[in-house]
Amino acid sequence: MAHSAQPANSEVFENLRMELRRGSLILAVLATLRTEQYGYTLRKILAEHGMAIDEGTLYPLLRRLETQGLLQSQWREEDNRNKRFYRLSSEGKQILKQLLAEWRGIDASLNEILKEKGYATSRPVLAGN
Amino acid sequence: MQLLDRYLQAIKFWLPKSQQDDIVAELSEDIRSQIEEREHELGRKLNQAELEFILKQRGRPFLVANRYLPQQYLIGPVLFPVYKFVLKIVALCYLVPWLLVWVGFRVFDPRYRATHTISGDLLGAWGSLWMTAFLVIGTVTAIFAGLERAQSKSKFLENWNPAKLPPVRDARQIPRYVSVLGVVANLVFLTWWLNGKWSLIVFEHSGVRITLTTAWQFFFWSILLFSVLNVPFFVVSFFRPYWTVLRASIQLAFDFAGATIFCLFLNSRILVEIVAPNLSPERAARIVNAINTNMSRALPFVAIACALAIGLTDVGRIIRLRAGRTRPAQDLGAAAHHLS
User: Fold this and answer.
1) d(C-alpha B246, C-alpha B256), whole Å
2) Mean pLDDT calculated for residue range B40-55
3) A46 partner at 20 to 30 Å CA-CA among A81, B83, B119, B133?
4) pLDDT at res. B301
């Protein structure tokens, strides 16, 4: 539906889409980093799951999340190259749990609204603990 | 990989010193991983063009570095609309009077027209405009940058009291204090005016005497009539404090008549004689002539100012009343009343 929009509207759609994805990306990054990853593999995993993120957004985000104490990082050698590995901190796990509850709440509310207005609804896809 | 090193060095330049090495090492690793993956897909080393393509996709070094920097504003998005509004007002306050004075000189002063060309005037103005704009914009920007800093520290914009909001404006309403002030001011004026102002000798004290022409009688009675008629107008406005098209038209007639009387006064060479101790008759005659001449010269500017003031206020009011543009304000008032 969105792809059939007029060119003028497609820019509006793109801006709104980016806005909508921004918060979800943080959730996806935190959820993915329950297992340790370095930047490049993290980006690939996210892209494989339909959450492509450019490096210019990902690395500053990782730094911000680390400064906020949600991630821990460590430089380590792998395949003869120094790589920085990230994983969720214990505080990050707590926050992720709260964010997932919030996400499910938003999803449920949105589904409720969409159902009332006769739109097709979706099932929550993020299952986490 | 010399190109990659040059790219990373360019990014590094813009990064904060404490994080430069860390960020560049991570970026370097990411780009090298991407290059390796691409080389693996192609089964060969990347050529210069392919490497350039990858770097171009990543973005200009300054923009890449910028994403790691904290967001900083000289004037942030909260204050920016106010800043823009203030700049527009300042520009109007400078440009409109300048334009009016210039048009006044060009239209009404033959000597000015003879010595100044339009292109010369505009070029001269253009030159001085830059300096003025630079100073004004610089000053306003500096003030707003200071406000932005204060706002980011104290969040003073977040502390506000809804009870202090101005009441809903009804453009039709005539505030009662205006009517009271109008009555009082006119009565005080009439008392002063009737106390000897009909005489052609308007001032006589300590040997100083100022005498006016007989035209003064016309102005005396005109101004008296004008002031007398104003009193019932303000009294009616006090008891019926709403503009109607009729009342707005009467106000327009009053203001037009007042402006006309004033313009005629300026052009009447009203002064006849000034007598003062230690003032020779020749010198007194020169002063009288200078005052009369300067009053006449001021006429065009006064006429333009009057026309502008009348046009903006009285004619604008009539147009608004006719167009019924006051309805939204009334609706707002009604809604507020409904809520309370």
Assistant:
1) 15
2) 92
3) A81
4) 77
| Tokens 């993290």, residue located | A42
Report which of B240, B78, B268, B254 is spatially closest to residue B155, judged by C-alpha positions: B78
Cβ–Cβ contact B38 with A under 8 A: no
Q: How far is CA B336 from CA B175, B243, B331, B332, B339, in A?
A: 19, 21, 9, 6, 5
CA distance A102 to B20: 36
Of B26, B33, B67, the CB nearest to A56: B67
| Interatomic CA distance for residues A87 and A92, integer angstroms | 9
Residues of B in contact with A81 (CB under 8 A): 29, 32
Q: Does residue B34 belong to the interface with chain A, where contact is any CB pair within 8 Å?
A: yes
pLDDT on residue A127: 45
B68, B61 contact by CB (below 8 A):
no
The residue length of chain A stands at 129
DSSP string, B218-265: HHHHHHHHHHHHHHHHHHHHHHS-B--HHHHHHHHHHHHHHHHHHHHH
* C-alpha pair distances (Å), B28 with each of A19, A89, B98, B194: 29, 25, 59, 92
The two tokens of residue B299 are: 């006429």
B58 reaches A (C-beta below 8 A)? yes
Which residues of B are less than 8 Å from A83 in CB distance?
Answer: 29
pLDDT number for residue B13: 94
Measured CA to CA, the distance from residue A48 to residue A27 in angstroms comes to: 16
Q: Chain A residue with minimal CA distance to B35?
A: A40
B30: contact with A, CB 8 A cutoff: yes
Among A65, A83, A85, A86, pick the best mutation site for testing chain B contact (most B Cβ within 10 A). A83
**B68 neighbourhood in chain A, CB within 8 Å:** 59-60, 63
The CA-CA-CA angle for residues B184, B185, B186, to 5°, reads: 95
CA–CA min distance A57, chain B (Å): 7
Residues whose CB is less than 8 angstroms from the CB of residue A27 and which lie 6 or more positions away in sequence, other chains included: A96, A99, A100, A103, A126
**Chain segment A46-75, per-residue pLDDT in tens:** 999 999 998 888 999 999 999 999 999 999
**Are the Cβ atoms of A40 and B29 closer than 8 angstroms?**
yes
pTM given for the model:
0.57
**pLDDT tens-digit map of B118-152:** 888 888 888 778 888 888 899 999 999 999 888 88
Compute the C-alpha angle A125/A126/A128, nearest 5°: 145
Does B29 sit within 8 Å of A38, measured CB to CB? Answer: yes
